[in-house]
């Protein structure tokens, strides 16, 4: 099975009322772990690469790894997605390499940090849609700005600034209509990375999860029930994974993620794509640290990358089950990019 357009995966998820995990990758072990989990749960899946990942792995290597993934598991619908594209040129490069979906993050300027105006966002997102849709390629856009900075993107907003840049439900219909995009990333208080919250319990001093504006997702879904929404920064940052890192020499205090229950609430209200990156990074790092501490004589990369891959696999497996995509890989006949062109005529 060739890579499929993300639009089909999201359309089918909407029909089935489930969400699909979009997992960021940088290397072979992550791709292998994702595909094994997708196979073992019979799940359609979105594999995505940020600009930072493409710089690290070089686009051509990542492309070949993806070709190997779909060749090994031809029965699994897989979309390859560019995460946080910062310009039309970046999106073009990804499409030329065979990505079946791209995100144009027009909420930020090309530096990936400075917030754009609404008009600038509309203009650059519409440009990418105009280029991608005739090729059958799916386009995701973003309205509002996410906090945190990871892989060179993210506005790095304070808690107060995040509140000012949440997605305005009153703009969503206009934004979707003017851009023609397929999926809308919403800013509801999530952020990239493992340090998602500065909130503390005033009595105990314990860290609290980020305060999410879930009512905005509910409102957008009420206004546009057919709009495929995307939750970015949706790693749950499990305490047990952070504890392993810290137990074996790490130093990661005050981390907190997004409770799975809140993601599931989003899925019930139109969220179809759920971005997860940090959780697998935590699992990989903890597994490697454990080997280095418990077996300091080890020097073969396979001795620590195999347990790292296994740890990431467990994360992907759990998320695929939690988001509801498990069991749905064989529900539909996969489209090609050529097929998807007809969606946009």
Write structural notes for this entry.
The chain has 345 residues and is α/β, with parallel strands linked by helices. The protein has a single domain, classed as Aldolase class I (TIM Barrel). It is built from 14 helices and eight strands. The protein has an eight-stranded parallel barrel, surrounded by nine helices. Helix 2 links the parallel strand 1 and strand 2. Helix 2 packs across helix 13 and helix 8 crosses helix 9. The longest helix is centred in the C-terminal third of the chain and has 23 residues. About 1% of the residues have low confidence.
Report the total helices. Answer: 14
Under CATH, the homologous superfamily reads Aldolase class I
Name the CATH architecture. Alpha-Beta Barrel
- Say how many strands there are: 8
Give the secondary structure arrangement, pairings included.
Blueprint lengths: L5 H11 L3 E5 L3 H14 L3 E6 H7 L1 H14 L5 E8 L2 H9 L4 E4 L13 H15 L5 E6 L15 H6 L4 H11 L3 E4 L27 H10 L4 E4 L7 H9 L12 H9 L2 E6 L1 H17 L6 H23 L13 H4 L5
Parallel strand pairs: 1-2, 1-8, 2-3, 3-4, 4-5, 5-6, 6-7, 7-8
Helix pairs in contact: 2-4, 2-13, 5-6, 8-9, 10-12, 12-13
Based on the model shown, name its key terms.
345 residues; alpha/beta; TIM Barrel; eight-stranded parallel barrel; 8 strands
Quick rundown:
The protein has 345 residues and is an alpha/beta fold. The chain is built from 14 helices and eight strands.
